[in-house]
Hints:
The protein is built from ten helices and two strands. By secondary structure, it is an all-alpha fold. It is globular and about 55 Å long. Helix content is 63%, strand content 3%. The N and C termini lie far apart (39 Å). GO terms for molecular function: mannitol-1-phosphate 5-dehydrogenase activity.
Amino acid sequence: MTVETFSEWIVDKTQFKGALPNIPGMELTDNLMAFVERKLFTLNTGHAITAYLGKLAGHQTIRDAILDEKIRAVVKGAMEESGAVLIKRYGFDADKHAAYIQKILGRFENPYLKDDVERVGRQPLRKLSAGDRLIKPLLGTLEYSLPHKNLIQGIAGAMHFRSEDDPQAQELAALIADKGPQAALAQISGLDANSEVVSEAVTAYKAMQ
C-alpha cells in the first residue's frame, strides 16, 4: 500500500461556537472559498497541466513528466500565475504561497505514486470549462491584468489531449476537427472566440502540432 504524506485540512472557523479547537494539522479560516480556490488554482491546475504536457511529450506518469525540466518550468510558471490571482484576490502571503507551490511540486515528484498522465488528463471538456482548473485562473489573470503565458500553454496542451478510453477526449477531437480550434475552445470555455486570449491559445496549440 502506498501512503501519501501530502494532506490539507482546512476548516471554516465560523461554524464553531465558543472556543476554537486546537487540533494538530487543522488550519482554521474565516474564508473557506479562498482555500477552495487555492487548491483548484494550484494542485488541480498544476496536476492537469503536468498530465497534458506530459502526455504530449510521451511520458507515462506525473512523476516522469514533472522531472522533465521543460514541463516543470511551465507547470511551476502556471501555478505562479494562478497564485498571483489568489494573492491579489484574497491577500495570501506571497512567500507562504511560493512554499505551497513547492509542496505541490514535491507531491508530483513522489516516486511511490504511480499517477498515470492519461488518467489525470481525462475529461478535458470539463477541465476546459469556465469554472474549472484551467480557464478559471486564466479569467483571474485577465481580471487583474496579470501574466498568463504558462496557463495558455496548459490550455493548449489540454486541447491536444487524446485517449481512446475517454469519451470527452474523443468529443474534443471531433469538435476541433469540425469547428477548428478557435471556435471549439470558445464553445467549451465560454471565452470570446475573437478575444486576444483565445488567439494566444490557438497559436500555442498550433505550435504544439
